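Students often ask why inverse folding is considered easier than folding. One informal answer: many sequences map to the same fold, so there is more than one right answer. In these notes we will look at a single instance of the problem. The structure comes first.
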């Protein structure tokens, strides 16, 4: 394709985006879901499924990822791209309810406007709100779908500390728990070791680089490694990701950047991470052990000290169910993996989940029965 053809195609693409955004504003739909990329669809899928069945033609799924969409539901899919078009969309969108799982509304390119009646935040991790997110991450939403009391208490404390307008906090539960639980095959016992580090803005390449040595030693110990870096790490550190792919290619190493992480968790007999929220999902739903690499904490909130009286859900799960890996133990990782797999006791998990998370296995029933309180 020559340069002229590329320019023409780009103009056509941009014109279509403008046309699609304007078509939304003419329709003024009842429900809009915005997704940054295809890896986030799974977190809102059950909500979208319910709403699209109850309100056919009223649910729009908007994404900045051209490969992101929903084909099996009565949903209008629209691609809007990033940067200018993303900003234009949020400045002009007209809708009753806009669901977002991207934090920091009004503190980034994504801003509020007067044409949207209700900005609703839903979580894509079961972690606390006080540590791994910025201080302002949840300040500007109208409604927040909380996973458990811990998030409800944390957000209320933030409102009081900063004298913020009170948001509507809904005791919904974590829909992604139910999404996973609906799919799980409890008789499928995988044999891989899933390595899924968090992304960390305080690290040079947004990842703890000791994971190179950790993976190397797991493979040497005779295990199959499935490496699943966080989408933010992939986006911000492409050269580092290519390094991992090239170094471990063909050595019982699987690089996994699929949008859905279900298979990765289903096929693993153990998860190794540092601070990723996947650890809570893996322990609670798959009831298998997590080994936490203890080297560098993930604190993205510059006001985290204000919440020292509130133990984060991340820390509670880690202390109650997790196993530790220290820097000086990396060479002994085979022993630590075998110990975790053999000794892990999942007897208390059901009790823990029912006492710390709202409406487990019943989130959509709760949403259905309380939709008039949640949506406009």
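Output (designed amino acids):
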């Amino acid at each position: 394709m020559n340069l002229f053809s590329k320019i023409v195609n780009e103009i056509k693409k941009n014109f279509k985006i403008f046309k699609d955004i304007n078509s939304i504003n003419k329709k003024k739909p009842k429900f809009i879901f915005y997704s940054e990329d295809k890896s986030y669809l799974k977190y809102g899928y059950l909500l979208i499924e319910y709403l699209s069945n109850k309100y056919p033609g009223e649910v729009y799924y908007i994404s900045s990822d051209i490969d992101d969409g929903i084909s099996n539901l009565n949903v209008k899919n629209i691609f809007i791209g990033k940067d200018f078009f993303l900003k234009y969309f949020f400045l002009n969108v007209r809708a009753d309810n806009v669901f977002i799982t991207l934090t920091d509304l009004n503190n980034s390119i994504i801003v509020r406007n007067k044409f949207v009646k209700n900005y609703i935040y839903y979580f894509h991790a079961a972690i606390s709100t006080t540590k791994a997110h910025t201080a302002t991450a949840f300040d500007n939403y109208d409604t927040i779908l909380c996973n458990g009391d811990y998030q409800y208490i944390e957000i209320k404390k933030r409102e009081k500390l900063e004298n913020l307008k009170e948001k509507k906090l809904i005791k919904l539960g974590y829909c992604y728990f139910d999404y996973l639980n609906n799919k799980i095959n409890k008789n499928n016992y995988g044999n891989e070791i899933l390595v899924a580090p968090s992304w960390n803005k305080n690290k040079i390449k947004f990842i703890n680089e000791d994971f190179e040595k950790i993976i190397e030693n797991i493979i040497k110990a005779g295990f199959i490694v499935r490496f699943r870096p966080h989408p933010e790490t992939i986006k911000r550190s492409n050269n580092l990701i290519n390094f991992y792919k090239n170094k471990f290619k063909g050595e019982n190493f699987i690089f996994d950047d699929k949008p859905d992480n279900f298979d990765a968790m289903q096929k693993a007999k153990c998860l190794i991470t540092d601070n990723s929220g996947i650890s809570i999902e893996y322990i609670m739903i798959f009831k298998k052990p997590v080994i936490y690499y203890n080297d560098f904490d993930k604190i993205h909130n510059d006001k985290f000290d204000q919440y020292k009286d509130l133990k984060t859900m991340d820390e509670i799960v880690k202390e109650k169910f997790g196993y530790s890996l220290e820097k000086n133990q990396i060479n002994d990782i085979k022993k630590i993996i075998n110990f975790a797999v053999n000794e892990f006791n999942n007897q208390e998990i059901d009790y823990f989940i029912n006492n710390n998370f709202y409406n487990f296995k019943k989130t959509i029933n709760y949403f259905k029965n309380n939709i008039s309180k949640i949506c406009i």
